[in-house]
Specification:
This protein is mainly alpha-helical and 117 residues long. The protein contains five helices and no strands.
Length: 117
């Protein structure tokens, strides 16, 4: 199997097809760092070997990346689930307008309805 063939297999499976673009233009900026990373890793580990060996090595490299990313994802989710929302020090203009409208409606006895928003 040639490197081009392996890249074509990976490109078919990748959502936006940028694997091939990064392979053909390694110094180009196509806006997808993950695609560039995948191409780099696969190229770096490619060696002349039987097809199944090449495929297994590509799987190993991609799985290794997944294994290194998984704890990062877990840490971010943990932070999301344990962090309380911190109220901004300065309210936005929209927040001030909403509060003013609510006070106005409360003072004038006007009930808030779906058409009033």
């Amino acid at each position: 199997m040639k490197l081009n063939d392996l890249i074509a297999i990976i490109n078919e499976a990748y959502p936006d097809g940028l694997i091939q673009q990064y392979f053909e233009h390694p110094n180009g900026d196509n806006g997808d760092g993950l695609a560039a990373f995948i191409v780099h890793e696969v190229k770096e580990t490619f060696a002349k070997a039987p097809d199944k060996t090449q495929l297994r090595e590509a799987v190993r490299v991609i799985q290794n990346a997944r294994d290194e990313l998984s704890p990062i994802i877990e840490a971010l989710w943990k932070r999301i689930n344990t962090t309380r929302r911190i109220k901004p020090l300065v309210n936005t203009h929209e927040d001030k307008m909403e509060k003013w409208a609510k006070k106005y409606d409360d003072l004038n006895g006007r009930p808030e309805g779906p058409d009033d928003r």
